[in-house]
Design brief:
alpha+beta, 6-stranded antiparallel barrel, elongated, 53% helix
Length: 327
């Protein structure tokens, strides 16, 4: 079901983007091919033979607003004029702050260099240092569709980077879990935690190692060790899956573990938050504790409550078949 929801949302986003982009094309929001008026001030007297000429670009807000058909702020921007045998090109300085829609035009046409540029035509140079001119900016189309595509690619890169970063951590903790299992530490943890977790996981047999793995997973979350909690949670789910007679349907215990793992109490702030905020994270201690405690209670009540609904109860893999007699 979630796959269908994601597919629907993606399709809806593309439709929304396409409608907006068609509207931009009909309105010619970016004035593709239309010369934009500017005033150029040369730092040195204008030299027609020079290749690079540093300039100050002055933009009149009224002229730009009339050009784009909507309010556009003017300003003063650094730049340069490049003169070649093919003509002149005006280049705004790299990373200079530009108003919309010029900022969008730059991001669409110069993502790597982040400088807006286009062919320039001069009027008469006044006093050898000032000239009125026009610059024709690059053509811009399908802004929203390109933005969605770029976001998808960026998130794909992030996912790969995150996955590679977790490989070492998962390998380390899975190895430690195997050592704990062979040494009997998991069995000790099970005996200690069983009285507390038994009411929440009544389907797990007494003394089963899944309880110990659940304790380790929840403990890692409580201590803010998110990367360590991941392999423990995976191992706990694998252990619960061994008890599952219907492999394609989650049991109540698996749902409860997922709810508690997602909304577990955080006593120690997450490592990433500490890295970002430093000592300031202490101010968030009680808000984090209260919010996570409330979310844990809500998660447990929701998992237990939904399990009593007829539809969920009938699909429970651990539900005894109709007519079964307990021995």
């Amino acid at each position: 079901m979630l796959n269908y929801l994601w597919a629907g949302l993606i399709a809806l986003s593309f439709v929304f983007a396409l409608v907006n982009d068609i509207g931009d094309l009909r309105r010619d929001s970016y004035r593709n091919g239309s010369p934009l008026p500017v005033t150029l001030e040369f730092r040195d007297p204008y030299d027609p033979a020079a290749h690079h000429l540093p300039v100050t670009v002055r933009a009149d807000s009224a002229a730009w607003s009339a050009h784009f058909g909507r309010p556009v702020g003017g300003g003063v921007y650094a730049g340069e004029v490049v003169q070649t045998a093919d003509g002149r090109e005006l280049r705004f300085a790299k990373d200079v702050g530009l108003p919309e829609p010029l900022a969008t035009t730059r991001s669409m046409t110069s993502e790597r260099d982040n400088d807006l540029r286009g062919p320039a035509e001069f009027s008469a140079v006044s006093g050898g240092s000032v000239t009125t001119a026009t610059v024709t900016l690059p053509t811009v189309r399908f802004v929203k569709l390109v933005a969605i595509t770029r976001a998808a690619l960026d998130l794909a890169k992030t996912a790969v980077t995150l996955a590679l970063g977790l490989v070492g951590v998962i390998a380390l903790w899975l190895g430690m879990l195997r050592i704990a299992e062979k040494s009997g530490l998991i069995s000790i943890i099970v005996r200690v935690a069983e009285p507390v977790l038994r009411p929440l996981f009544p389907e797990i047999p007494k003394g089963h190692p899944a309880l110990g793995l659940i304790v380790l997973n929840l403990s890692a979350n409580v201590l803010g060790l998110g990367n360590a909690a991941t392999p423990m949670g995976i191992k706990a789910m694998e252990s619960l899956q061994e008890l599952n007679p219907k492999k394609d349907t989650a049991t109540n215990s698996m749902v409860m573990l997922l709810a508690m793992n997602t909304a577990s109490v955080q006593i120690v702030p997450p490592v990433l938050l500490v890295a970002l905020m430093g000592l300031q994270v202490n101010r968030l201690f009680f808000p984090i504790l209260i919010c996570t405690a409330m979310s844990l209670v809500v998660g447990i009540l929701a998992a237990r409550g939904l399990a009593k609904f007829r539809g969920y109860r009938e699909s429970d893999p651990m539900r005894a078949p109709a007519g079964a007699v307990e021995g």
